[in-house]
Design brief:
This protein is 32% helix and 12% strand. With 712 residues, it is an alpha/beta fold. Helix 17 runs parallel beside helix 19 and helix 22 packs parallel to helix 24. The chain starts with 29 loop residues before the first helix and ends with a helix.
């Protein structure tokens, strides 16, 4: 996948404890450890999720991978974070605690985009909410340290990964420090962690100290100074953010140093490399980001730091990053090298039971119910959607499993799942149709710094051939005992239209009546800030979808998903989207409002008010960023224009916008003049009863006026 060389994760010599063999499930209690003949665990994984021994659950994948390396791995699933004894349940681990908040960020898991507490948790037995703390990585790490002070604590997973540097935190509405500092952890592992965690475990088992594990790709650590032999490049040289400080007073006396030699910046180091190629020199250069105190108080410098970080996400050319926090530095190594197909196969071929741990009994775990009969065929996404965190976590380079490995998993589901009825719920990943898609030229791929391969148009160097995916679909559905294979992952329809044969295959055999896709918006303004294709591409795909559905003799429908309140979206944009929805007879049952996740490009837009897809500048006018609760509710209301509860809010807004002609009782109107009893303000009691029109005469006169204006 890349020209960089790295060690195969399955080529390490196994740790001596491999003689204990493979556990039916990784132990969660001392009793289970005793049954396996273990006196201790080498690694204990602490997670905010219920333990499901399935490769879609991070703790199971990492646990089984470490087990395959010969290590004894225990699981502390959703421990009581208020009782340190829960963190001593399996004893002291010989090597380290591995801490994760779970498959979801703990704050996203608990709060809606409106910061309301969710009533359930899909990753908990019975769907019960409240089984994990807010900022779970921090809290779990502190308890681990309290339980066994001398044991290294290594944090990872999506929550740690997206907080590896100073980041805007939507829930506290401020820029927070790197989670490495707040968790007081020894090491942070970001992205897909297989390479990093295997190397870390073997090196610690060989007697190395955690403080010496400094330059492992895909990790971040603390240091007091930049080590010798590294050149430092200031981030403002790479991406100049405009004036950083106020203009200097021309009448102020100049210090003596300005009349002689230029003073030396303590943060600047110039290293003379000899005998190294340019690529080798690049990998010995660290980029100095603005320090925490600067980005904390200056949204423009925060946006600048975000731009620089996103330019260093390609494993082929990324450089290390460093950020100052007073007397300590957070050092972020370049991203990990993507797994080769053989390694991906090895990870997914591990002996998962594919079931929840027996301790949960008959309780259902909603997330497991949804994915138990699905198969992950690839990782990564080169779409670059600004609101999405896949690139920051998994990277842009697609990592695909072999066809044989995928088929083996389908057969394993068929032969072992107690609830299998012949239906595979998904063959997918972050995207449904990026399987085996890649840059045509590996040299170009390793040098590219563009955030997307498909925006503003599909890159000419991208191979969009879907033949491998078509062959996979055909082989999988031809297996005995397989009745139907659905495709439920998000589909990049801008790629799909490049392969009509793929669209035909998908529509004819793998759609169960409805296919969900995500145009996200209809208007150019917000789409350009999302880095999403225009509606012309959607129309092309819909035409193909309808054509092949009709040819197959099937009545099938597209269900488009949209985002409200995204940076760059105006009230008029949402109104036009609502008109498009009504014209096309779409009525959304649930709507999604933009949630600024840590490190996402759109979150930097939200915080700074600037379009961070371009160089940020203090003189550039701010763009529209819906922040207030009233405006966010209005944008969501436009998506549900058909809901009477939203009509009072929409009437008020449309009149304020000068679009009162959209209020009326005809087909051309967005919302009606009348209000059903028991809805809107009337739903809150007689004191707030909706009484916009006091008499029938007034009602009729205004209705007639609106109709005449609309006709004109």
């Amino acid at each position: 996948m890349t020209t960089l060389q790295t060690k195969n994760i399955f080529s390490y010599r196994k740790h001596w404890a491999h003689r204990f063999g493979v556990a039916e499930t990784l132990p969660m209690t001392r009793v289970e450890m005793d049954a396996l003949g273990w006196d201790s665990c080498d690694v204990i994984l602490v997670t905010g999720d219920a333990y499901v021994d399935h490769p879609s659950f991070g703790m199971a994948l990492i646990g089984r991978l470490l087990e395959s390396q010969g290590f004894r791995v225990g699981i502390l699933s959703q421990p009581n974070w208020q009782d340190v004894e829960d963190f001593r349940a399996l004893g002291q681990p010989n090597l380290f605690f591995g801490v994760t908040g779970g498959n979801m960020d703990s704050l996203v898991n608990r709060y809606t985009s409106d910061k309301k507490i969710r009533s359930n948790d899909a990753y908990t037995a019975g769907g019960v909410a409240g089984k994990r703390p807010d900022r779970a990585v921090n809290v779990y790490s502190h308890r681990c340290r309290e339980a066994y002070k001398q044991v290294p604590v290594i944090i990872g997973g999506i929550e740690a990964s997206l907080r590896r540097m100073a980041h805007y935190d939507y829930w506290s509405e401020k820029v927070r420090r790197s989670v490495l500092l707040d968790a007081k952890a020894d090491l942070l592992v970001y992205g897909n962690a297989e390479r990093q965690i295997v190397e870390i475990a073997h090196r610690l088992a060989a007697g190395e100290l955690v403080k010496d594990l400094s330059f492992i790709r895909g990790t971040s650590h603390l240091c007091k100074e930049i080590p010798a032999g590294w050149a430092v490049k200031d981030s403002t040289v790479i991406d100049k953010p405009g004036a950083v400080t106020a203009p200097t007073d021309p009448y102020q006396a100049k210090p003596d140093c300005e009349q002689g030699d230029k003073p030396v910046d303590s943060n600047e180091k110039v290293v003379q490399f000899s005998g190294l190629t340019k690529k080798q020199q690049r990998f010995k250069t660290v980029i100095q980001l603005p320090d925490y105190d600067t980005v904390k108080d200056d949204p423009i410098m925060y946006a600048h730091a975000s731009r620089v970080m996103h330019g260093e996400t390609n494993p082929g050319n990324a450089r290390a990053l460093v950020q100052n926090y007073g007397n300590r530095l957070v050092w972020i190594n370049p991203p990990p090298i993507p797994l080769e197909t053989q390694e991906m196969d090895g990870v997914y071929d591990l002996p998962y039971s594919r079931l929840p741990h027996k301790t949960y009994g008959d309780a259902t775990i909603p997330a497991f119910e949804m994915i138990q009969h699905s198969v992950n065929i690839m990782r990564g996404c080169f779409g670059g959607c600004t609101f999405c965190s896949i690139t920051e976590h998994e990277g842009r380079i697609i990592q695909s499993r072999s066809e044989d490995s995928i088929i083996r998993e389908v057969e394993a589901i068929r032969d072992t799942s107690p609830h299998f009825t012949g239906h595979i719920s998904d063959l997918g990943g972050p995207t449904a149709n990026m399987y085996r898609l890649a840059c045509k030229n590996k040299a170009i791929e390793s040098a590219c710094r563009l955030p997307s391969c498909v925006y503003p148009g599909i890159c000419k160097n991208l191979d969009t051939n879907h033949d491998s995916l078509i062959r996979l679909y055909r082989r999988a559905r031809s297996l005995p005992g397989i009745k139907k294979i659905f495709i439920a992952s998000g589909l990049r329809y801008d790629l799909a239209v490049e392969s009509p044969e793929y669209v035909k295959e998908l529509v004819t055999h793998h759609v169960g009546g409805y296919l969900k896709i995500a145009p996200e918006h209809t208007e150019t303004g917000p789409l350009s800030k999302m880095m999403k294709p225009g509606m012309g591409t959607y129309d092309r795909f819909k035409e193909m979808f309808d054509k092949y559905s009709k040819a197959a003799g099937k009545e099938q429908y597209l269900i488009p998903y949209f985002i409200a309140a995204h940076p760059g979206t105006t009230d008029e944009d949402m109104m036009n989207l609502a008109l498009w929805l009504k014209k096309n007879s779409f009525r959304a049952d649930q709507v999604q409002a933009f949630l600024p996740s840590p490190m996402a490009i759109a979150s930097a837009m939200y915080h700074s008010g600037k379009d961070t897809l371009r160089k940020v500048d203090r003189q550039t006018p701010n763009m529209s960023v819906p922040k207030g609760i009233k405006q966010r509710r209005l944008h969501k209301a436009f998506l549900r224009y058909h809901d009477p509860e939203n009509w009072p809010l929409l009437r008020e807004a449309l009149k304020t916008m000068g679009r009162g002609e959209l209020i009326g009782n005809g087909k051309q109107h967005l919302i009606p003049l009348w209000q059903p009893k028991g809805t809107g303000a009337d739903n809150k009691g007689s004191a707030g009863r909706y009484q916009k029109f006091k008499t029938q005469r007034t009602f009729n006169a205004k209705a007639k006026g609106h109709r005449q204006k609309a006709r004109r």
